[in-house]
Design goal:
Length: 223
């Protein structure tokens, strides 16, 4: 498992991802996704954090989160994964069968401008790239569907974005994301390195002790 952030800074956006152990299907039926989203709502109420975007896939999930204070990210993710693991094992009568997830979540900070929009598109178009749907907004288990079709209560857990999406966002989200941007984002996932402008990356690496994650990294792409 790659290196995750050991501390989080307030008012910094983080992309967070975790996968099932062995990449087997965590979510096998609609009720599995619904159960995870109920846990998400419960944990967000108990340990408040700003949820900007998310997408739940069959064997992993992505989040874009913005902590209120240092330590919020770890507390929130620990509660989310632990509660889900316990309830999943109970539901499938697999208590004592080992780890549900590969390990601790992976995360990296994201600059809150156009780079945020790139990562948000990467997250919210995940099911489309995986060919699980023909339109990104048709994937029910994520923030895009929740914002577009969810009830007032369902939308209430979502936080405002630091930069507003374009008016034609559905058209944008359903257009292909550049391969080089996908490559750069996945490199940040692998290395837990900041994603943004060169100047901002240097600042975050210094602030969060992530200089070692920048070795061998090229210049992020700007669109």
């Amino acid at each position: 498992m790659g290196r995750s952030l050991r501390k989080s800074a307030p008012d910094v956006i983080y992309h967070v991802i975790n996968r099932s152990n062995g990449r087997f299907a965590l979510f096998r039926k609609p009720a599995d996704y619904q159960a995870f989203e109920r846990i998400l709502e419960e944990v967000q109420e108990k340990y408040p954090i700003r949820i900007l975007s998310y997408c739940i896939m069959p064997n992993h999930w992505h989040f874009l989160l913005k902590p209120y204070k240092a330590g919020d990210l770890s507390v929130f993710m620990r509660s989310l994964t632990l509660t889900h693991t316990q309830r999943w094992h109970t539901h499938y009568h697999r208590v004592g069968y080992g780890h549900l997830y590969q390990g601790r979540f992976k995360s990296f900070p994201v600059e809150s401008d156009e780079y945020f929009l790139q990562v948000a598109k990467y997250v919210e178009s995940n099911a489309l790239r995986a060919k699980l749907v023909t339109k990104a907004q048709d994937w029910q288990w994520g923030s895009l569907w929740r914002r577009e079709f969810g009830s007032k209560e369902e939308k209430s857990i979502m936080a405002s974005w630091p930069i507003p999406p374009k008016k034609d966002y559905l058209k944008v989200i359903n257009s292909p994301l550049e391969k080089e941007i996908i490559k750069d984002i996945r490199k940040s996932v692998e290395k837990s390195s900041p994603f943004g402008s060169v100047e901002w990356i240097a600042k975050m690496a210094e602030k969060l002790g992530l200089k070692s994650t920048l070795r061998g990294r090229g210049r992020p792409r700007k669109t």
